[in-house]
C-alpha cells in the first residue's frame, strides 16, 4: 500500500488514470476540471503517452474515439456544458462498442449555469445522453481517494463489456484536497493485451478490423442493439456497486451519491444523536443502479430520503426501484449549492414524521408556479416575471 | 492487337470511357446488363491502342486493358 | 496478351454503391493504388466520413473507422497519436469537411498532424439529396437554393485549399481534378505524395479533388464534366498551394 499523500481531486484522478495505464488524453479547458488536462499535459509525455488539447469538446471526444479504437486506454475529461458537446462522440463509441473513459466534473446548469460543483447531469449520464439506445457505466466517487482509484476500475469494466465508462463527480470533489493513496500497483500498458478488434499499428499478422456504429441492412441494427442490450442486462445483474452504512436497523434510508453522500453521513450521525435511526445507501455505480438492494431496503424502512444536488433526477431511479413500497422524499440542492448536514438532518426527521421542512414536494412547487407564470400577451412583462 | 474487356456487372453505363477513348472505340450497348444498365462495349475491331485512358476514367474499375 | 490494368489489392471486391459517373470511386481507386505501391496496406487506416463516402470502410481493404459528420481529422489525430506507426487518412466530402467539420480540419492542419486528408469537392451535399454546400458556386442550383446560390444571402464558396495553405503547420496542399485521364494521373501523383509525406514524417498533407456529382447536379456524367471544367475550375483553380515537403522530411 502506497503512503498517504495530500492531493487535489482533479490531479489525483489524472494520476490515477496514468497509473491505470491511460496513455491517451484529449481535452478542452472548462472549469472546474482544468487541473485534469493541465496535469495530463506533462504527465502523459513523461509516461510516454499522448496529450492533445483539442479545439473543442466535440473534437476532443472524437480524438478519444480514434484513440480508443486503437485499443489503448484513453480518456477525456470535461464539465457539464462540455459533456453536452461530447454526447455525439459518446454515442458513436457506444455504437462502436469501444471501451474508454469519460470524466465529468459537474458544474451548475442548465446552460452556462455556474462553475460551482453540482449533480445536475445525472439523467444525461445514466440514460446514455446522446442519440440512440445505449448506456455507459457511470461511477460516482465521493472522495479524492475514490477519484484516484476509480479510473482503473472504470477501464477494467469498460474493457470487459466494451461499453464506455464515465466517472461522474462534482466540482467540489474535483477541487478539494484530501489525504489519499493509490490502492493498486501502476499498470504497465505493455502488459495489457492488444484487443482483437483494435485498429491501427502495423499488423501483417491479422485481418483488417472495422470500427463503426452503423448498420443499414434490414434488421442489422436491431441485432446490434439487442446484442448490446444483452450485455447491459448482464452488467445490471453483475456489476452493481454500492456502499451501505447503518442500514441494519434504519427507519429512514438516505440514498445519496458523490459529495451529497458525505453531507448525508454527517446528517445521519446528527439524526442518530437525536434518536432517529437513519441509514445510508450510497450508489457507487449510478448505472447500473442498485435498484435491487434499494427495493429490499424499502420493505424494511419507513421512508426513503433522496439527497441530491439536482431536482430529483436520481430520485426517479429510486422511485422506479421502490415501486411505492414506502414513501420516497427529496431533499435537493439544485443550482450548484452544497447540501448542509443540519438541513439534511431536518429532512430526515420530516421524512419520518410526514412533515415538509427541508423537503421538496411537487404539488407545492406547482402551486408556487401557477400564479407566477405570465402569459406571453400579459402587459406586465418585467424582469424576473418567471421567478 | 490491344483490347479492353468490360465487366458488365460492374459497369454502370456512365459513358465517361466513351469520351476518354482517343480513338472512339467504345460505345454503349443497346441491351441491359444484369444490373440494369446499358454497359460500355468495345465496338470497333482493331481500334483499341491499349492506352488505358478508359481505365483511368472508369469509376467502377469495370474495364481491363490488354496489350 | 497481358492485362496492363488491375483492381488494386487495397480495395475489396465490393461493388461501389456510388452513382454512375461519380468521382468518389475514381479517387478510391487512386488511393488504393497508392497504398499498394507504398506497401502500407498492413498499417493504413481509413477514417470514413458521413456523406456518400460513408461506406469507404467497405471498399478499402484496410483498417477502418467510421466517424461522426466532419470529425474525421479529430479521429485521425487520435489514431495517429495513439499509434504513430499507423498511416492514417481521413477521406471527406465538402459538406463534411468544409461545413460541419471546418473546425476539425483547420485545427488538425494548425497542429500539423502527420496525417493525410483526401477532400472530395463536388460543390454539393450528395447523400442527403443535393442541398447547398459551402462549396456550391454562386448561381448554382441546389435543393436548398432552388433559385441558385445567392451571393447576398448565402455568400461565396469557401476555397478550402487556399485557406488551409495560410496555416504554417500545413505542409502540403494541392488541388487536383478527376475530370480527365491526364488529370486523374496527376491526381494520383498528388495523393501518392500526400501519403509519402506521412511516411516521411513531413506533416499535414491535404489533397482536394474536384469531382462531379451528376445525380445531384441533375445532368449526365458527360455534361457534369463540362460543368467541372467550365465553372468549377474557374472558382477552384488547380495547382499546388503549398509544398514544404523537402524541407520537412524527417532527418533533413
Largest sheet of chain A: 7 strands, mixed
Number of strands of chain A: 15
Please work out how many helical segments of chain C DSSP would assign: 10
Mean residue pLDDT of chain C: 97
Distance between the termini of chain C: 45 Å
Total number of domains of chain C: 1
CATH superfamily of chain C: Thiamin diphosphate (ThDP)-binding fold, Pyr/PP domains
Order of helices and strands of chain C: HEHEHEHHEHHEHEHHE
- The general outline of chain A is globular
Identify the CATH homologous superfamily of the largest domain in chain A: Thiamin diphosphate (ThDP)-binding fold, Pyr/PP domains
The unreliable regions of chain A are none
Roughly how many Å is the radius of gyration of chain A?
A: 22 Å
Spatial gap, N to C terminus of chain A: 53 Å
Order of helices and strands of chain A: EHEHEHEHEHEHEHEEHEEHEEHEHEHH
Task: Please give a structural write-up.
- The complex is a heterotrimer of chains A (387), B (67) and C (252).
- Chain A is an alpha/beta fold and 387 residues long.
- Chain A has two domains: 5-238, Rossmann fold (3-Layer(aba) Sandwich); 243-370, Rossmann fold, CATH 3.40.50.
- Helices cover 40% and strands 18% of the residues of chain A.
- Chain A is globular, with a radius of gyration of 22 Å.
- Chain B has a single domain (3-66), classed as 2-Layer Sandwich (Alpha-Beta Plaits).
- Helices cover 15% and strands 21% of the residues of chain B.
- Chain B is built from two helices and four strands, in the order βαββαβ.
- In chain B, the strands form two sheets. A two-stranded antiparallel ribbon of chain B has the order 1-4.
- Chain C has one domain (23-248): Thiamin diphosphate (ThDP)-binding fold, Pyr/PP domains (Rossmann fold), CATH 3.40.50.970.
- Helices cover 38% and strands 17% of the residues of chain C.
- Chain C has a seven-stranded mixed β-sheet, sandwiched between helices.
- The model of chain C has no long low-confidence stretch (mean pLDDT 97).
- Chains in contact: A-C, B-C.
- Chains A and C meet through strand 2, helix 3, helix 4 and strand 9 of A and strand 1, strand 2, helix 3 and helix 5 of C.
